[in-house]
Fold:
Amino acid sequence: MILLDASQIRAWDAYTIKNEPISSFDLMERAALACFNWLSENGYLENSFSIFCGKGNNGGDGLALARMLSLNGSSVTVYILEFGKLGTPDFQRNLQLLHETAADIHFISEPERLPAIEKSAIVIDALIGTGLNKPLEGLWQSTVQLLNQSGNEIISIDIPSGMYADESSVDNSFIRASHTLSFQCYKMAFLVAENEAGMGQVHILDIGLDRKFLSSLEKNYQLLTASYLKPYFNKRHLFSHKGKHGHAALMVGSKGMMGAAILAAKACLRSGAGKLTCYIPEEGVSIVQAGIPEAMCSIDTYTGDNEKLDKLACYDSIGIGPGIGNTEESKNRLLFILKHYKRPVVLDADALNLVAGNLELWKLIPANSILTPHVKECERLFGKAGNDFTRIGLAIKKAKEYQVVIVLKGHYTLIADPSGKYIFNSTGNPGLAKGGTGDVLTGIITSFYLRATPLLMRLVLRCICMVWQQIRQ
Structure:
């Protein structure tokens, strides 16, 4: 699925207007009609509507929608914020057409004149769209506060007013919508947890923008969907055997944390690893052998003799971290692997915590290794971030700086690769908010990594989070 920033979306509008060709007014009609159809399909047309508009093109969308609703027989009241200037040309044309309907139109010039909203009305937010470049204040802010305190269901057009499309809105006043009807593609604002209270359920409406525009873009980011990835998953050959599907190793578990080892090991084997060896403490051997007998167990501590070096070299991939604890022994085992294993590794959980506190370990991480931090682990690795956008930017920067892949876990998990490109996974769900899901992810990635050739590696990186999410559903 396409993910563009606000400037690219405006350029896409302009390209469509020029090359379809279509007038900007008629493109606005398409957007309003898409919103009208959504309201119709979802049973809203029997309600009355209070529509709040600015004088930009977002407000023009609101006026066009108001006209369609009024002509359809709905009771429509329109409130336009008035600052003594004309609106955009398309806004003014829609305002003229709206005067020819039964819609009740009011102009609001100061906070004291803001209305009491009918309790049964559906509020349409068409105040200001993706062109916002500073926090709302004055009449804008007062209007947003009124709508948020009204208790009415709010439906925002394109983006909740007061919310930036491409940067943090954490200090802004913005609409708390129940639904956001956005156009053509996702905005970055819809992918971050800090905006959850504002956007409600996001619905992407197709307004027929010319898709030839997309071929001219250099896209550094993307939003993954299941349909995009499905063709890349193939069945095993009938005559394959375990030797054809790689030998993985997991350094996992400690006293009281053997559940992490079980989860990671099961995920690794069920995701396709032919063989798996788990490096675990001696007291955990019976737990792993009883819980997942397919896995082999070793209690080697990697003290450095040649036999252990040879054994290390036989693994096609190694995953390290779930449940190992933040101890000196774990640090020494991790240090040994990073010094002597010549391929990328998968680092999660306590492995990340060990790396965060030790510059020597950072320097030893092989290129193209995969780090899978959650928000707190990301802070330990790279420092605190004031908001989600800063954290995302930091992960992208560090992936390129250290030449690793960073999988920043969340509802829309970020995958940042060493080239500076990044993608978001679209299949997260709140059921994953429980202990153990990260251990499962580590096992899956370790399994995927052992079968990947360099040419396929980028695709694998794009798939790992998707498969993890689908398995956990």
